[in-house]
């Protein structure tokens, strides 16, 4: 009798443990879906803003090129100065890419996927 009670109790514990593991897996899936949804939504918003800023910058650049062209009495020189400015910015961005892009992106992903370790890096 004791042996049967022990077996039943052991089976109950095993069933409860399996339910617990299943619930933890479901909770982990929900957490992953939530974080990926936040990431995707944030990415979509940032891409939309960048898209609109790109067009604003493009039209401001064209206006600036025509303005410089008017001042220099050569539209070609105006456009060359603006393009030279962008080449200079691209070169500076390339030189500072690790500090401006790589490190912040790595930190963002660490905070996104490991929020409980946020305080540990300070």
Write a short abstract of this structure.
InterPro entries: Phage_holin_3_6. The chain is mainly alpha-helical and 122 residues long.
Description:
The chain is mainly α. The protein has one domain (1-113). It has helices at 2-72, 75-95, 97-113. The chain is rod-shaped, with a radius of gyration of 29 Å. The protein starts with a helix and ends in a 9-residue tail after the last helix.
Quick tags:
about 120 residues, mainly alpha, 3 helices, about 0% strand, rod-shaped, transmembrane helix, Putative superfamily III holin-X, membrane
What is the average per-residue confidence, as pLDDT, rounded to a whole number?
88
Estimated radius of gyration: 29 Å
* Structure classification: mainly alpha
Terminal residue distance: 59 Å
What is the succession of H and E elements?
A: HHH
- Low-confidence stretches are none
What's the story with the biggest beta sheet? none
Distinct helical segment count: 3
Please, how many domains?
1
The share of residues in helices is over 70%
Name the beta content range: under 5%
**Strand count:** 0
The global form is rod-shaped
